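REVIEWER CHECKLIST
Item 1: Sequence provided? yes
Item 2: Single chain? yes
Item 3: Sequence as submitted:
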Amino acid sequence: MSTHHEPLFEHSPWVEARADARPSTGNRYHDLMEVVYDATRAEKVALIRAHPELAGRTAIDGTLSEASAAEQASAGLDRLTPGEFELFHALNAAYREKFDFPFVICVRLTDKAGILAAMERRLAHDRETEIATAIAEIGKIVLLRMEDEA
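Item 4: Structure as written out by the authors:
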């Protein structure tokens, strides 16, 4: 059933596999997110870490998943000025240094300015808040990807 589409969760097929192994509620999105919410803290962090850095190295070297590349392009992250690129790089580095995982946001629901503002705002959070925030953003990403497939 779920063999011919891009993974909904970046490099994390275990989410869909676990959902497939459970009784379905009839709401695929709900079932998938229940798996995520039920996951261990380490698994949640691994799921966050499976996401690429925004405007990061993977955007330049072509190793982004097709879905991520399209999503980042939708927010203009493939067309940054050198100054914007430096700012993204600095904020990404500060964020990763503090939280030990990449900054994740549903880029299709915002734009460059919104992303930068969110990065600056979320740097003030504690790690538990950021894990929860990143998981919520992953949920938004997955919902949009599911709508694309429908």
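Item 5: Key structural point noted by reviewer: The longest helix spans residues 127-149.
Item 6: Recommendation: ____
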